[in-house]
Design a protein that fits this description.
By secondary structure, the protein is of the alpha/beta class. Helices cover 40% and strands 16% of the residues. It binds magnesium ion. The site of magnesium ion (MG) has 7 residues, from loops.
Length: 160
Protein backbone atom coordinates (compact mmCIF):
# COMPACT_ATOMS: atom_id res chain seq x y z
CA UNK A 1 0.00 0.00 0.00
CA UNK A 2 2.71 2.46 0.99
CA UNK A 3 5.41 1.81 -1.58
CA UNK A 4 5.79 4.42 -4.31
CA UNK A 5 5.58 3.27 -7.93
CA UNK A 6 8.94 4.85 -8.65
CA UNK A 7 11.89 6.45 -6.88
CA UNK A 8 13.82 9.43 -8.29
CA UNK A 9 16.63 11.46 -6.72
CA UNK A 10 15.14 14.72 -8.01
CA UNK A 11 12.09 15.80 -9.98
CA UNK A 12 14.26 16.52 -13.01
CA UNK A 13 15.58 12.95 -12.97
CA UNK A 14 12.18 11.76 -14.21
CA UNK A 15 12.26 11.78 -18.04
CA UNK A 16 9.19 13.27 -19.69
CA UNK A 17 9.35 10.48 -22.29
CA UNK A 18 9.02 7.84 -19.59
CA UNK A 19 5.89 9.48 -18.19
CA UNK A 20 4.39 9.79 -21.67
CA UNK A 21 5.12 6.13 -22.38
CA UNK A 22 3.26 5.24 -19.16
CA UNK A 23 0.24 7.25 -20.32
CA UNK A 24 0.78 10.04 -17.79
CA UNK A 25 -0.51 13.43 -18.96
CA UNK A 26 -0.85 15.32 -15.70
CA UNK A 27 1.34 15.93 -12.67
CA UNK A 28 0.53 16.83 -9.09
CA UNK A 29 3.80 18.20 -7.72
CA UNK A 30 4.74 18.88 -4.10
CA UNK A 31 6.55 22.13 -3.30
CA UNK A 32 8.71 21.89 -0.18
CA UNK A 33 11.81 19.74 -0.58
CA UNK A 34 10.56 18.48 -3.94
CA UNK A 35 10.73 21.66 -6.04
CA UNK A 36 12.38 23.86 -3.48
CA UNK A 37 14.66 23.34 -0.48
CA UNK A 38 13.48 24.17 3.00
CA UNK A 39 15.51 27.39 3.18
CA UNK A 40 15.56 28.25 -0.52
CA UNK A 41 13.47 31.01 -2.00
CA UNK A 42 14.54 30.59 -5.62
CA UNK A 43 13.77 27.59 -7.78
CA UNK A 44 16.75 25.68 -9.14
CA UNK A 45 17.22 26.21 -12.88
CA UNK A 46 16.92 22.44 -13.46
CA UNK A 47 13.46 22.42 -11.92
CA UNK A 48 12.35 25.51 -13.82
CA UNK A 49 13.55 23.91 -17.06
CA UNK A 50 11.93 20.57 -16.28
CA UNK A 51 8.55 22.17 -15.56
CA UNK A 52 8.80 24.46 -18.59
CA UNK A 53 9.62 21.56 -20.92
CA UNK A 54 6.89 19.43 -19.38
CA UNK A 55 4.33 22.13 -20.12
CA UNK A 56 5.65 22.56 -23.67
CA UNK A 57 5.15 18.82 -24.17
CA UNK A 58 1.54 19.18 -23.10
CA UNK A 59 1.64 17.99 -19.50
CA UNK A 60 -0.88 19.62 -17.20
CA UNK A 61 0.66 20.51 -13.84
CA UNK A 62 -0.83 21.41 -10.49
CA UNK A 63 1.18 22.23 -7.38
CA UNK A 64 -0.23 20.73 -4.18
CA UNK A 65 1.30 21.83 -0.89
CA UNK A 66 0.56 21.53 2.81
CA UNK A 67 2.32 24.87 3.23
CA UNK A 68 0.66 28.26 3.59
CA UNK A 69 -0.72 30.01 0.56
CA UNK A 70 1.67 32.96 0.18
CA UNK A 71 4.83 30.91 -0.39
CA UNK A 72 2.98 28.44 -2.60
CA UNK A 73 1.27 31.11 -4.71
CA UNK A 74 4.53 32.95 -5.35
CA UNK A 75 6.28 29.84 -6.59
CA UNK A 76 3.34 28.61 -8.61
CA UNK A 77 3.09 31.99 -10.32
CA UNK A 78 6.76 31.82 -11.25
CA UNK A 79 6.19 28.39 -12.80
CA UNK A 80 2.88 29.49 -14.30
CA UNK A 81 1.04 26.49 -12.86
CA UNK A 82 -2.15 26.18 -10.83
CA UNK A 83 -1.69 25.58 -7.12
CA UNK A 84 -3.53 24.46 -4.02
CA UNK A 85 -2.06 25.32 -0.62
CA UNK A 86 -2.97 24.08 2.86
CA UNK A 87 -3.78 20.79 1.18
CA UNK A 88 -3.80 18.59 4.31
CA UNK A 89 -2.05 15.75 2.49
CA UNK A 90 -2.41 12.75 2.80
CA UNK A 91 -6.15 13.44 3.06
CA UNK A 92 -7.75 12.98 -0.37
CA UNK A 93 -9.52 16.36 -0.69
CA UNK A 94 -6.54 18.26 -2.07
CA UNK A 95 -5.63 15.47 -4.47
CA UNK A 96 -9.20 15.27 -5.73
CA UNK A 97 -9.31 19.04 -6.20
CA UNK A 98 -6.05 18.84 -8.14
CA UNK A 99 -7.42 15.96 -10.22
CA UNK A 100 -10.53 17.97 -11.09
CA UNK A 101 -8.33 20.88 -12.16
CA UNK A 102 -6.25 18.60 -14.36
CA UNK A 103 -9.41 17.17 -15.94
CA UNK A 104 -7.71 13.81 -16.40
CA UNK A 105 -8.42 10.24 -15.38
CA UNK A 106 -6.66 8.68 -12.41
CA UNK A 107 -4.36 6.53 -14.51
CA UNK A 108 -3.20 9.63 -16.40
CA UNK A 109 -1.96 11.43 -13.29
CA UNK A 110 1.33 11.09 -11.41
CA UNK A 111 2.01 12.53 -7.96
CA UNK A 112 5.60 13.66 -7.33
CA UNK A 113 6.78 14.40 -3.80
CA UNK A 114 9.49 13.78 -1.21
CA UNK A 115 7.32 12.38 1.59
CA UNK A 116 5.98 8.89 1.94
CA UNK A 117 3.26 9.78 4.45
CA UNK A 118 1.86 12.80 2.65
CA UNK A 119 2.60 12.70 -1.09
CA UNK A 120 2.82 8.97 -1.72
CA UNK A 121 0.18 7.81 0.76
CA UNK A 122 -2.27 10.50 -0.39
CA UNK A 123 -1.66 9.74 -4.05
CA UNK A 124 -2.16 6.04 -3.47
CA UNK A 125 -5.38 6.59 -1.53
CA UNK A 126 -6.68 8.33 -4.65
CA UNK A 127 -5.45 5.60 -7.01
CA UNK A 128 -2.77 7.75 -8.65
CA UNK A 129 0.73 6.84 -9.86
CA UNK A 130 3.30 7.98 -7.28
CA UNK A 131 6.93 9.04 -7.54
CA UNK A 132 9.00 9.53 -4.38
CA UNK A 133 11.95 11.93 -4.66
CA UNK A 134 14.83 12.49 -2.28
CA UNK A 135 14.26 15.56 -0.09
CA UNK A 136 16.31 18.50 -1.42
CA UNK A 137 17.50 19.45 2.07
CA UNK A 138 17.91 17.32 5.13
CA UNK A 139 16.47 19.97 7.44
CA UNK A 140 12.70 19.86 7.68
CA UNK A 141 9.77 21.18 9.59
CA UNK A 142 9.65 19.38 12.99
CA UNK A 143 6.54 17.40 12.07
CA UNK A 144 8.24 16.27 8.87
CA UNK A 145 11.30 15.10 10.80
CA UNK A 146 8.98 13.01 12.93
CA UNK A 147 7.56 11.24 9.87
CA UNK A 148 10.98 10.79 8.27
CA UNK A 149 11.81 8.33 11.05
CA UNK A 150 8.91 6.09 10.07
CA UNK A 151 9.69 6.56 6.41
CA UNK A 152 13.14 5.08 6.94
CA UNK A 153 11.58 2.13 8.77
CA UNK A 154 9.07 1.54 5.97
CA UNK A 155 11.50 1.83 3.09
CA UNK A 156 14.38 -0.21 4.51
CA UNK A 157 16.84 1.65 2.35
CA UNK A 158 14.82 0.97 -0.82
CA UNK A 159 14.76 4.67 -1.70
CA UNK A 160 17.09 5.59 -4.55
MG1 LIG B 1 7.62 18.00 0.53
Amino acid sequence: MLGPDRFAPRLHDVPHEELEAAGIRGLIVDLDNTLLGFRETELAQEHLDWVTRARQRGFRIVMLSNNLSERVNTLAARLDVACFSNALKPLPFGFLKAKRRLQLRRREIAVVGDQLFTDVLGGKLCGLYTILTEPIEAKDFPITRFFRFFERLMLHGRRG
